[in-house]
Amino acid sequence: MRPIKAELGVAPELGSCHTAVVEGYVIEGHVPADAIARLLEERPNIVGLAVPGMPVGSPGMEGPNPQPYEILAFDAEGNVSVFDRR
Hints:
Blueprint: H1 2-8, E1 19-22, E2 25-29, H2 33-42, E3 48-51, E4 70-74, E5 80-85
Parallel strand pairs: 2-3
Antiparallel strand pairs: 1-2, 3-4, 4-5
């Protein structure tokens, strides 16, 4: 998967266990569906969204003691910003 992630512009520090492309945007990791819906509605000039790692409390990682996590936006130049916090 590393070559695919690299080809899609996912830096190693943004990596997680799942990678998808949705309407031209890369979705890396356990990104909540409502964040993807917002991405598709707003259509920012970015490569995609990432939730690095597998934080407890993110979709598919439910469990006791959820931890806060950030949904990160990343662009083709390697810039990363916070898209949302949970």
